[in-house]
Amino acid sequence: YKTYIKHAHWFYQKLVEPALQDQPNIKNLLIITDGDLGHLPFETFLVEQAAKSASDYNNLHYLVNDFNISYNYSATLWKENIENPAPKNNGQILGVAANYEPQLGSAMVDVRLPTDQWLREGLSPLPGARKEVETLQEKYQGFFAFDNLASEKMVKDKAPDFAILHFATHGILNNKRPVLSSLAFSEDNDSTESNFLQVHEISKMELHADLVVLSACETGYGKFEKGNGVASLARAFMYAGSPALIVSLWQVNDQATSEIMKNLYANLANGMKKDEALRQAKIQYMKKAEGISAHPAFWSPFIMMGNTEPVSIKKKGNPWSWSWSFGFVWNWRACISQKR
Fold it and tell me: Engineering a disulfide at 94: which of 50, 162, 208, 274 sits with its beta carbon 3.0 to 4.6 angstroms away?
């Protein structure tokens, strides 16, 4: 606790406070970082020095209490993002909940790369994923895939049509070769796809989604590249045409994720912009959290990137569009760090 409050306040004093001097009317912060700063959630910086004798994480004065905060990888990407016309799509959700129990059939063992087989062996079940997508299915129009239907081939075929892409899957980070980082889908024994949707494949897709939320572990994390920001799964979706993403910076807790996403949806349904909706979702979570569950490690990994305008999707039983977002869910959604 003492280490956290010391450094969190130091970061605020050095990186944020100088920019806010004599600017009393600022309500929104756009953060475009450089180098390792791209791995920090600025929301957790402390505006005031906290008491060293306490350890109450609920009542600290975080930067998120004062500002709507969004991020981007570079000024160039940000400029292109806000100048591009709004995507044209069907206003519906593509919700995907991967199931890691189905195994590779014996006939496919010689087809799949040994590396892919090794990666799949390490994928643990995600108990909250199916429930999350089923909840969306109950309320909103779209296509919702479970079990073997939640495959890479299906995603490639259907993703270009939808306003919201909701993937409840594992994320796999390849530190040495970021273009091989991937989202892991269900094994359907397809001979043409590995069911690991990799960064280089995502970046070549033609998406028209207003929002992609990757609450898989470390979807916003990657290798820093000079001039281009962090090479990651999230950036690949931006190159593919999505103007906005909600991503995570580290492994996320399933219970905290579910609560934050529930709050996020409700806020967006009330017409909030995406950055404000995520900010309020975090604050709402903190107000209910008790003890160590209020620690920033639980609520701050999710950051909003790109276009902050509200999202429109179609609600079941209602022909009108509502402002909404979507997300992925995880369990301490352990991701695999692939080193080869």
Answer: 162
pLDDT in tens, 190-230: 989 999 999 999 999 999 999 998 865 555 555 555 555 55
pTM of the model: 0.82
Cα–Cα distance for residue pair 8/6, rounded to 1 Å: 6
**Distance of alpha carbon 266 from alpha carbon 58, whole angstroms:** 22
Q: Is 158 helix (H, G, I), strand (E, B) or coil?
A: helix
Name the nearest CA neighbour of 172 among 331, 340, 334.
334
Residues 6 or more apart whose CB falls under 8 angstroms from that of 309 comprise 244, 273, 274
CA distance 160 to 312: 16
Contacts of residue 189, Cβ cutoff 8 Å, sequence gap at least 6 = 104, 105, 107, 108
Provide the 10 A C-beta neighbour count for residue 116: 17
CA proximity to 65, closest of 311, 280, 219: 280
Q: How far is residue 223's CA from residue 231's CA, in Å, rounded to a whole number?
A: 5
- Three-state DSSP class for residue 295: coil
Cβ-based neighbour number of residue 103 at 10 Å: 12
